[in-house]
Amino acid sequence: MSTMSKKSISTRELTTTALFVTLITVGAFIRVPLPNCPFTLQILFTTLAGVVLGSRLGAVSVGIYIILGLIGVPVFTSGGGPGYVLQPTFGYLVGFMVGAYIVGLFSEKYGTHSVKHLLIGSVINLLVVYGFGMVYLYMIMNFYLGTAIGWWPVILSCFLIPVGPDVFLCVIAALLGKRVVAQLR
Fold first, then answer.
1. pLDDT of 8
2. What are the two backbone dihedrals, phi and then psi, of residue 10, each rounded to the nearest 5 degrees?
3. What three-state secondary structure class fits 9?
4. 3-state secondary structure of 111
5. CA neighbor of 20 nearest in space, from 55, 56, 60
6. pLDDT of residue 3
7. In this model, does residue 89 exceed pLDDT 60?
8. So what's the pLDDT on residue 146?
9. How large is the angle between the packed helices 42-70 and 90-109, nearest 10 degrees?
């Protein structure tokens, strides 16, 4: 019984995790189309999930979002279903989950939740998301779709062009994260 209670999740944690699944879904539909990699608010909400919920629940919230999309609920920017794994942008979704875990570790490690520490965690999260996304896009384009693409076009269209607004979203996430965590405590 005691080991089971250590693994249980509180009503508050369950509710906030579900809230972030919803926010990430909404963030997918607030988008600006760019070649190969659309700009969305997902990076803001996945970063906040890690900051507010911590590493474990932040990653779980993104994981639930991914599972919902893969079982067919149209929560991704271009729909949903198991075939979405073969979309060139699927790597970004995996990166969101890993990035939420990493920024959550920063949030847990630095209990003061200073904007500086949260911003560093947010930028590392951003680099992880882009890293997963660009590598996956390169692999799918070259080895599955048979559309040869070099690293420079991937870096240009999927990092250099969209990274500016996402850095701004990291700043917003750090500022909001500090305030939200303070209010929740």
1. 84
2. -75, 165
3. coil
4. coil
5. 60
6. 43
7. yes
8. 87
9. 120
Strand partners, 31: 40
pLDDT at res. 5: 45
In three state form, how does the secondary structure of 132-177 look? HHHHHHHHHHHHHCCCCCCHHHHHHHHHHCCHHHHHHHHHHHHHHH
Tokens of 167: 């850095």
Q: Which domains does the chain have, with CATH numbers?
A: 11-184 (1.10.1760.20)
Measured distance CA(8)–CA(14) in Å, rounded: 10
Cβ neighbours of residue 27 under 8 Å, at least 6 residues apart?
40, 41, 42, 43, 44, 45, 46
Cβ(27)–Cβ(37) below 8 Å:
no
Burial of 96 (0-12, 13-18, 19+ CB in 10 A): buried
- Tell me the C-alpha distance between 149 and 102, whole Å: 30
φ, ψ of residue 146 to 5 degrees: the values are 70, 20
